[in-house]
């Protein structure tokens, strides 16, 4: 019986010797926490297993006889592992810590899955990571579109924190900052990989929100442009046309010559109204995008069709080849040119205009005229053209030419917007 008891006690004290062996690789605070953790677990384990062992010997001695020691040892050995796990879980909950890296990873993953969104998941993950690492503080920084940084923190980082880069599929998502030196670098790397997934989700959420905002701005600019064109262009033209027809009708009997002049004037006004209506329709859905489409006529053909519309003489200059352009870039360039030419025909009072497209590192579109320039409110209303360029990652600027007139310059990268 004494031999069996010694075997049971050796099985209990063995893990304590292993824990003592790893103490030398930890800092002072980590050693103290691990020693207290193991002491509580194995003290309780010794009490429980010892109670089972000696209880079986005491109560089963009359029934089992000399076999009671062996039965007690077998029962203690069978209970050892499940009881240790339960006691370890209880102590972990008591100290708010966890030593099993797989359970730690699962706990962090669950905290992220239970969050309401990527931003909330990031905050939950930072808290779970701090508890998993047993650190005084943890901060997670995610780089958002436009260079903005979203930061969440839990606890205090102190004077000399450790910084780990969050990498997702080779792309840097941000940084994980932990107070002090990490006790378990392998666990820190595992948590960094999980946080990189959350950081990527936060970036995607920010991209989606930014796209929604740009779509809203573009839609409102489209509505504003349509209302402005109806109010300032087509509306006055139709009103003047109605007045000319009424005057011609009254003059038809008394002065047929005057009526003929008024009808000729009405005919010109009708032509202007047709051009205005066509510009409005083309602005909503350019004909080059329907039927054969830009894929057939190409950007060059669409721009030459745009230059043939009534109004000032328009020259189209294309020094290089425009083949194999990204579809989004072609559409953006055409719509910017269409809006710029609409402003030239309605407001610039120009006699000539120039559309120039050059292919360098990107696509450079220039629309200039020799008119009187655009009023300040028209230049401020050019946000629609800027939005078209920004949709593909480019830019668009409007300025006054040194010799008079207006110049629109759009720089569009030759890649699909990501």
UniProtKB/TrEMBL annotation:
It comes from the Bacteria. SUPFAM superfamilies: ATPase domain of HSP90 chaperone/DNA topoisomerase II/histidine kinase. The chain crosses the membrane at residues 39-56, 63-83. Residues 328-416 form the Histidine kinase/HSP90-like ATPase domain. It holds the Pfam family HisKA_3. InterPro entries: HATPase_C_sf (IPR036890), HATPase_dom (IPR003594), Sensor_HK_TwoCompSys (IPR050482), Sig_transdc_His_kin_sub3_dim/P (IPR011712). Keywords: Kinase, Membrane, Transferase, Transmembrane, Transmembrane helix, Two-component regulatory system. Gene3D superfamilies: 1.20.5.1930, Histidine kinase-like ATPase, C-terminal domain (3.30.565.10). The keyword Transmembrane applies. This is Histidine kinase/HSP90-like ATPase domain-containing protein.
């Amino acid at each position: 019986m004494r031999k069996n008891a010694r075997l049971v006690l050796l099985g209990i004290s063995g893990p304590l010797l292993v824990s003592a062996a790893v103490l030398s690789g930890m800092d002072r605070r980590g050693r103290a926490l691990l020693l207290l953790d193991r002491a509580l677990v194995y003290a309780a384990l010794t009490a429980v297993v010892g109670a089972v062992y000696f209880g079986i010997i005491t109560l089963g001695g009359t029934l089992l006889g000399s076999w009671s020691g062996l039965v007690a040892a077998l029962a203690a050995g069978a209970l050892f592992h499940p009881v240790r796990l339960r006691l370890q879980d209880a102590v972990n909950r008591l100290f708010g810590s966890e030593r099993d890296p797989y359970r730690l990873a699962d706990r962090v993953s669950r905290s992220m899955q239970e969050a309401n969104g990527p931003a909330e998941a990031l905050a939950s993950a930072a808290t779970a990571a701090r508890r998993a690492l047993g650190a005084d503080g943890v901060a997670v920084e995610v780089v958002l579109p436009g260079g903005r940084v979203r930061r969440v923190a839990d606890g205090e980082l102190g004077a000399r924190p450790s910084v780990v880069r969050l990498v997702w599929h080779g792309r840097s998502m941000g940084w994980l900052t932990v107070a002090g030196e990490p006790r378990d670098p392998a666990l820190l790397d595992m948590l960094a990989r999980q946080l990189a997934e959350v950081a990527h989700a936060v970036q995607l959420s920010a991209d989606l929100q930014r796209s929604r905002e740009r779509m809203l701005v573009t839609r409102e600019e489209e509505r504003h442009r349509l209302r402005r064109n109806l109010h300032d262009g087509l509306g006055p033209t139709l009103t003047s046309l109605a007045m000319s027809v009424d005057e011609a009708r009254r003059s038809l009997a008394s002065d047929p010559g005057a009526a003929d002049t008024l009808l000729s004037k009405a005919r010109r006004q009708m032509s202007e109204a047709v051009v205005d209506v066509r510009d409005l329709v083309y602005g909503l859905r350019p004909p080059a995008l329907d039927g054969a489409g830009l894929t057939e006529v190409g950007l060059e053909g669409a721009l030459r069709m745009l230059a043939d519309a009534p109004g000032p003489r328009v020259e189209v200059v294309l020094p290089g080849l425009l083949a194999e352009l990204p579809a989004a870039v072609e559409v953006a360039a055409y719509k910017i040119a269409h809006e710029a030419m609409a402003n030239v025909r309605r407001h610039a009072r120009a006699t000539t205009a120039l559309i120039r497209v050059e292919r360098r590192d990107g696509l450079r579109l220039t629309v200039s005229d020799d008119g009187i320039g655009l009023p300040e409110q028209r230049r401020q209303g050019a946000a629609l053209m800027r939005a078209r360029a920004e949709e593909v990652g480019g830019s668009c600027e409007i300025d006054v030419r040194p010799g008079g007139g207006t110049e629109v310059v759009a720089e569009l990268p030759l890649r699909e917007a990501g």
